[in-house]
Specification:
Blueprint (H helix, E strand, L loop, with lengths): L1 H30 L7 H11 L5 H14 L3 E3 L4 E3 L52
Antiparallel strand pairs: 1-2
Helix pairs in contact: 2-3
């Protein structure tokens, strides 16, 4: 019992540290970078947790699955949509990447013609066995 009383402050400090680290770790993760919508998790949540027959309660459950999976709930559509794209997405031209030689003003077009048929090959005749029986 005396050992527990001596270790009690250390245990309390360690437990407080674990709680603070987990709290700030989640905040840093939640606020950093663009969000991704985990559609597989959303589908699993819908199949597992949305059980109500009441339309308003069912919508609330679907909305919770949407937000928990990283999606954005659109009230006017009444459905879950992907979160907005971050600043690093969009067209390939906007990303800073360019093909070697830069972007062409107009891409060349070409219509492929069908290939000519192969010339016939001289195949020796197949010989039948002399004694079929």
């Amino acid at each position: 019992m005396a050992l527990f009383r001596r270790l009690q402050p250390a245990i309390l400090v360690a437990a407080t540290g674990v709680v603070l680290v987990s709290l700030f770790g989640n905040l840093a993760t939640a606020s950093g970078g663009p969000r991704e919508w985990d559609i597989e998790w959303f589908d699993t949540c819908i199949k597992t947790y949305v059980k109500s027959d009441d339309p308003s309660e069912r919508t609330a459950q679907i909305r919770k699955c949407c937000l928990d999976s990283g999606g954005d709930w659109n009230d006017s559509l009444g459905q879950c949509v992907a979160p907005p794209c971050g600043s690093d997405c969009g067209s390939a031209e906007g990303s800073g990447w360019a093909p070697p030689g830069g972007w062409p003003d107009k891409l060349p077009t070409h219509t492929f013609q069908p290939a000519e048929p192969a010339p016939p090959v001289n195949v020796p005749p197949t010989l039948a066995p002399a004694n079929p029986g």
